[in-house]
Amino acid sequence: MKETYSIAIDGPAAAGKSTVAKRVAKALNYTYIDTGAMYRAVTYAVIKAGLDPQNEEESITVLPGMTIDLLEDGTVLCNGEDVTKVIRTPLVSGNVSYIAAMKPIRLALVDMQRELANKRSVVMDGRDIGTYVLPDAQVKIFQIASVECRAKRRYDENVSKGIPTSMEDVIEDVKKRDYIDSHRDFAPLKQAEDAIPLDTSEMNIEEVVNAILSIIEEKTGVKA
Q1: Which residue has better confidence, 3 or 216?
Q2: Contact 12, 197 (CB under 8 A)
Q3: 190, exposed or middle or buried, with CB in 10 Å at 0-12, 13-18, 19+?
Q4: CA distance 86 to 31
Q5: Cα–Cα dist 148/31, whole Å
């Protein structure tokens, strides 16, 4: 039986993890698991239901029967609805860290994520993949960049998708998410002891992807 590998890419909001992880997965022919999109989908479901995304008791009521599907083309389905674009709006972005800090929601989604990783080789990005979701991942990357750099990337991404926003709002959102993600009680954002730090502030996407592919080859012998 062919050996499977798990690649964990962690880091703060807007560090470019998802973009890089998708390309790394494609280069290796692995499955990309967008954990951030899963938390955003739950956040959207909570808001859509008219519930308070800062209230755990209310928010967890959307979990029973919920389905989240991540399609190969990047489409995200929540209960059968295409939510790919709406989960990137400022309303969802401004509340997803509250939802992600809720232990019952994290446990539910982590079960889904681990099940996927048990079946195939995956590239998974998030906040706690190397420390909590996949602690036995063969390769762990902790991808960082300055607040200003991350805000600029997120702003450009929003503009390209036609999502109205301002640079000031994005900077504040990034700072807020950094604080919430790193201070939550359960599975906070932090670098795993065996993770390799990678500062991408002065790197373009291609350079980051190549750097990670080199680390993977060095650790596992797997070539793109």
Answers
A1: 216
A2: no
A3: middle
A4: 23
A5: 31
Q: Hey, what are 119's tokens? A: 């079946």
Distance of CA 102 to the CA centre of its chain: 16
Pick from 3, 8, 40, 41: nearest CA to 24? 8
DSSP state, residue 11 = -
List strand residue ranges (DSSP E) for the chain, in order: 6-10, 31-34, 68-70, 76-78, 81-82, 122-126, 139-144, 196-199
Length of the chain: 224
Task: Retrieve residue 184's tokens.
Answer: 């939550």
Contact 128, 192 (CB under 8 A): no
pTM over 0.85: no
pLDDT tens digits along 168-209: 999 999 999 999 999 999 999 999 999 999 999 999 999 999
Tokens of 151: 């805000």
Distance, CA of 122 to CA of 93 (rounded, Å): 25
163: Cβ contacts below 8 Å, ≥ 6 apart? 85, 88, 89, 90
Phi and psi at residue 143, in whole multiples of 5°?
-90, 120
